[in-house]
Structures are given as C-alpha cells and as structure tokens.
Design brief:
single chain; 0% strand; mainly alpha
Length: 188
C-alpha cells in the first residue's frame, strides 16, 4: 500500500473521529446550528489539509480538487462564525484578538494566497521550482497555523481531539517538508 493511501486513510479516519468527538461532546450540545456547522467544516478541513501535500507528486488533479474543498470548508467555517456572532468575529480578527484567532486569520489569508497561486500558476510564468517552493512553503504554514488554532481553541475537540489534531497536523507537516525537500533537491 502506498504512503498516499495510508495517509489518506489516516486523514479520513482522523476527520471522522473529529466529527464524532465534536458531535458527541458537551460543547456542541444545544449549540446554535451555525456553530455546529462551523465546527464540522473545520474538522473536515483539517483532515483534508493533512493529505494535501501527499497528493502533489502524481495526483495533481486530486490535489487541486481537495484544495478547492479545503478552501470551501474554511470559508464555510469563517462565514458561519461571522454570521453567528459578527462582533466576536470582528474582535477575533483585530490585533487585540486572542492568539488562536490571529493564527486562524493568518492561516486563512495564507490559504487564500496559496489558492490564488494555484489558480494563477501558468500566468505567473515563474520557474516550476520557484512556484512549487512558494506554494508549498505557504501551504505548510497554513497547516501549522490552522492546526495550532484548532489545538488552542478550548471546546469541542479537547482531550482526544487534540491528539488527533496533532497527528493530522504532523502528517500534513511531514508531507509538506518532504515535498519541499524534493523541490529544493531538484532545483540545485
């Protein structure tokens, strides 16, 4: 079995486990629907981010589709939180917001940049190594900041959820570092 299939299976199981933990825990019991939707979208986004770097070698089409899914899930997560409590969302995006919220803000902005780089790849006319390095480096930061944000949030994913988040983040980070190392090796 290939590493991509193993990581994909681990990410799918991890995402499913996060969803079950979030739904079964007391944090979302009686919570507004938008908070539940936001949390579930975030759980699935983390799982998809974990497998993303592993899809770049020979599965570029799948990588692009999963990247689109990640972007939609993160947008759903943010929009649901904003609609649920606009004042809290705006405070979180301010310089006075908590660290976990600033991590999320940076991760979201970087995800938009990574997505834009993907869409504009051919128009930028950069060397493949330059584009891959920039795209991959920023994507690695998205994974680290996004998982860091999720770990620092106290609520639906405390306990076992934290362990699963760290494993998924580790899978994504290892995949990103591996791909970046390969890009740098080929460029030199």
């Amino acid at each position: 079995m290939s590493a991509v299939r193993v990581v994909g299976a681990a990410a799918a199981l991890g995402g499913a486990f996060l969803v079950v933990l979030a739904l079964a825990g007391p944090h979302l019991a009686g919570a507004p629907v938008l908070l539940v939707v936001s949390t579930l979208a975030a759980c699935l986004a983390v799982a998809a981010l974990a497998v993303q770097p592993w899809l770049t070698r020979r599965r570029v089409g799948v990588h692009v589709r999963v990247g689109g899914i990640v972007a939609v899930l993160v947008a759903l997560h943010v929009v649901a939180l904003f609609v649920e409590d606009p004042d809290d969302a705006l405070f979180s995006m301010s310089p006075d917001g908590p660290t976990r919220a600033r991590m999320a803000l940076f991760a979201t902005v970087l995800l938009a940049v990574v997505t834009l780089l993907g869409v504009l790849r051919r128009r930028l006319r950069w060397s493949p190594a330059t584009w891959r390095f920039l795209h991959g480096s920023l994507a690695a930061l998205v994974v680290v900041l996004g998982v860091g944000h999720a770990v620092l949030i106290q609520g639906a994913l405390d306990g076992w959820g934290t362990a699963v988040l760290l494993v998924l983040g580790g899978l994504g980070a290892v995949g990103a570092v591996g791909r970046l190392t390969a890009v740098l090796r080929r460029a030199s």
